[in-house]
């Protein structure tokens, strides 16, 4: 398979790498985290101006087209830049659900606003007891006249506190762990009965628990088919798993780069640490695992835009399992090779490692995806 980027993809890569190198950085990240909502809206507007929020949206709906590979290129650069803006929640998760499940009228209303940076989205699908099983659901939606009434609690919905609309999974029929009977709804964040408890996550981003107490929605709020929302949710989560694996590759590349630079500068016994062969071997292993993660992430991104859903699921799990294993190894090696200084807040090493840790536990950790691959064998 040819993994050579097109001219347009090279432009996305170069623009993103230049932006995060010249206009972002750790100090900018800290400033953004301290702002209301945990990110900078002026930076978000710049994302829109550069066309990043329009990726994956058809041109007739205000987007610039492109596919999952284009997003993976951007996400890899975002990983290296330690971006805190809600691209994953709004564009990857929310945008996928609207593009794949909303009616043409809803798409025509919301997608141009998303591309312009005027709409923030979140996806509330996990529950306290469900862990990574998308079908394990206690949240209920009861038919009521021409609409539905939602009751339940969702956990760890990324950037739910700043979302204008929240996609919510709820059970419209069947038992708690049935695959069928799950429906997706797009709910206004200010709907009566909906409450978001916002909090920071360990990596410095934001998430929220979403409580639904008699939240009423009309039939137009349904994404996809009633009782058929699980497949739509799985497609969005697989795409997100592939893309955070690309983000992880960007984080690993930055950790490897910073660690190698430190080994060249730091001296022990009158020699740079990088002269010691044992440390060279450890740095080489970091580099190799970064490249393996990147390759699997881009393969998974390619598969997400194909027609073979089984292949897309398998590739997403392969990339995510590798990202979890490699992220832990590279993060631990970076901290140790920095002599313990990597865990201090003043150095970016610890921030990269924290983000890699949360990525491992998002959309299924390494153990979950290895089990999933075994089930698909």
Overview of the molecule:
- With 377 residues, the chain is of the alpha+beta class.
- It has three domains: 7-118, Butyryl-Coa Dehydrogenase, subunit A, domain 1 (Orthogonal Bundle), CATH 1.10.540.10; 122-228, Beta Barrel (Butyryl-CoA Dehydrogenase, subunit A, domain 2), CATH 2.40.110; 231-376, Up-down Bundle (Butyryl-CoA Dehydrogenase, subunit A, domain 3).
- Helix content is 51%, strand content 16%.
- The protein has eleven helices and ten strands.
- Strands 1-4-5-8 form a four-stranded mixed β-sheet. Strands 2-3-7-6 form a four-stranded antiparallel β-sheet, with no helix packed on it. Strands 9-10 form a two-stranded antiparallel sheet.
- A hairpin with a 2-residue loop joins strand 2 and strand 3.
- Helix 8 (277-304) runs antiparallel to helix 9 and helix 9 (309-337) runs antiparallel to helix 11 (366-376).
- The mean pLDDT is 95.
CATH architecture of the largest domain: Up-down Bundle
Distance from N terminus to C terminus (CA atoms, Å) equals 23 Å
Q: Tell me the CATH superfamily of the largest domain.
A: Butyryl-CoA Dehydrogenase, subunit A, domain 3
Q: H/E order of the elements?
A: HHHHHHEEEEEEEEHEEHHHH
Q: Report the uncertain regions.
A: none
